[in-house]
Amino acid sequence: YSSPNIAKPFHVGHLRSTVIGNALYHIFETLGYHCEGVNHLGDWGTQFGKLIVAYQKWGSREAVEQQGIQELMRIYVKFHDEAEKQPELEDEARAWFVKMQNGEQEALSLWKWFYDISIKEFNRVYDMLGVHFDAYTGESFYNDKMTAVVEELKEKNLLTFMTFNINILKLFFNVYELHNVWHDVIMYRISFTFMLAARLIGI
Questions:
Q1: Rounded distance, CA 100 to CA 43, Å?
Q2: Which of 16, 64, 104, 119 is most buried by a 10 A CB count?
Q3: Which of 11, 34, 85, 179 is catalytic?
Q4: Strand positions, DSSP E, 14-134
């Protein structure tokens, strides 16, 4: 519960989940259940490639250290403004996210720095609310687990590959027998980075 996005301000949409989740945690704990409060963060994706590009072009360490999330948000918005005039910036961002997924040190160091700054700000809010978590995990937790999941689905013949225009590959995850529906899951883009498995790995 809570689940804010790294490098973006905590907003009212996250507040509702935070309060409800924290209340349920304490109710069940009082009833004698063992509870684990997990904050599933929005901490992975192409947006961090965009943020890295934005930081390198228009940001500075001093400004980020002083202004925190507000500065990260400023340069992120500037990226989108500039990308309308320079579409090639989107390719740069995708390339940086691929570096993150491949474990490239510079990319991961910048991502971890953005992460730590964000957690510091989120904890300031949680302290005011009297909320605590037993664990902070997010989409990044599943980065090294995706390939094994896809391979297992292949072995069980649960995936059908189909090209969808020139730059997207779709995987259709057949869960008809379980839910009487088909789930249409976009897993790869042109850069062959995972898109959605981190969120649906528990389907």
A1: 12
A2: 64
A3: 11
A4: 38-41
Average confidence (pLDDT) over 112-139: 93
Burial class (CB in 10 A: 0-12, 13-18, 19+), 78: middle
CA distances from 185 to 17, 46, 65, 168, 201 (A): 25, 17, 38, 11, 11
Q: How confident is the model at residue 163 (pLDDT cuts 50, 70, 90)?
A: low
Q: Is 8 a catalytic site residue?
A: yes
Taking the C-alpha atoms of 80, 84, 85 and 89 in order, what is their torsion angle to the nearest 10 degrees? 60
Is 179 labeled as catalytic in the residue annotation? Answer: no
The pLDDT tens digits for 64-97 are: 999 999 999 999 999 999 999 999 999 999 999 9
- Distance, in Å, from the CA atom of 198 to the CA atom of 165, rounded to the nearest integer, reads 23
Beta-strand pair 135-138/38-41: parallel
Give the least confident one: 18-22, 65-69, 136-140: 136-140
CA distance linking residue 157 with residue 24, whole number of Å? 39
Task: Identify whether 120 is a catalytic site residue.
Answer: no
